[in-house]
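Much of what follows relies on a compact textual record of a protein's fold. The record below shows the convention in full:
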Amino acid sequence: MTDPDIDIDIEALRGWIGRSIVASDTIDPWHAAAMHAALDRDGPAPAPGRPLPAGWHWLFFREAAPARSLDRDGHAARGDFLPPVPLPRRMWAGGRIAWHAPLPVGAAATRRTAIQDVALKRGTSGPLVFVTVAHEIAVDGAPVLREEHDIVYRGRGEAPPAAPAPAAPAAPWQRTLAPDPVLLFRYSALTFNGHRIHYDIDYCRDVEGYPGLVVHGPLTATLLMAIAADNAGGRPLAAFAFRARAPLFCGETLALSGGLDDDRAGAFRVAAHGPAGRLVMTAEGRLAEQ
């Protein structure tokens, strides 16, 4: 089933470009410790004053939307800050992050968020609308992180399957894990993400047509950042760009792999694969200068 005839007034949706909001939050040590536990990381959790690990900023600045304002999928209703895209499915398509300075655990921070772009494209399963949201996080008025993340909206039609692309056996960085329902629940709770595809199996199958619970795209991206940081010799990440290629489902084995492209420049590439070599996510980044 496709949705080729859905009427999308892209010019009206582009009227949301430039809308912005500002939020304040404290980079709470408990949330950092909880994320450390959820990811089953070795050693002590990041203490106050220490840099927050890459990708963990998604735990903060979350919108606490009242239950009465939620859409059927568990997200906040569209048409307030995000444009009212008339396509039922929404997912993170990818993003780009640049770190200007560490984001310390315990710091008071502010985030300015703005709608940067809204674009209509056509896929084999029907229309796709991409909304790009830009975030700028600052501590004491000094910028520490800039991010752009792309949200894709699509119809009920199935997305084309990703072509198998097995990880190269020679990749120096390797890790495998199988995200389970507990990890998905804890990550949803820590990020206050009500999207039902991550915890409601009946909704996944009966409404969205997925065979199982969907692993969060940002969680996969965080795991890819972690494998790079764990092999960086103490150098923090300076930039990271990722693109979702296909869903990963709860209980499936996730294979993370990658390595440096250029040791002196700190450029690296990483990828996430599911069963049978299904390409789940690709990413590239750069380590901070030594």
Summary: Strands lie at 20-26, 89-99, 108-123, 126-139, 142-154, 173-177, 237-244, 254-262, 267-273, 279-287. The mean pLDDT is 90.
